[in-house]
Predict the 3D structure of the following.
Amino acid sequence: MNETLNPQIKQLWLAGLSSGEIAKELEVTRGVVMGRIHRMREANEIGVRECDERMHKIKQEVRRLEKERQASLPDIIKVMPLEEEAPVPEKKEETQTKDILRIFDEAPPKKVGRGPIKFNQLTYMTCRYIVNDGDPRDFLFCGEPKRGRAYCAEHEAICYCKIERKGKR
């Protein structure tokens, strides 16, 4: 490693330049600059900059003021607390039945073949077209031998559309 960069980076960093500005100045990447700064901080060669301390104090003051504002609001209009203080939401039992979204009309009658199979019965050679709807844990797949991609010839015609090209390249 080029240790001659460390004093230059340290001087520019303490002067208040950002890591991107230092990287442009020294013609290195921002990652190099941030890595060196991180190692210098770990070795206590540099401390926290004055502008960083100032920003930390401003953020603390904003948090304190937000807490005061929240405390002064009536319970009805209180909003969610700050991110770091957000309570874990309680899990509620779902009593509503979810509406099932049907993308296609009823599937046309299938020819006699292997028939629908469960997820754990899929192989790399079987069609992965979902033939029922509802709970994903109960999905059934076509199971016919696939052609090319992920589907059999019948389902490939449904899922993919061919684009006719006007001119050949």
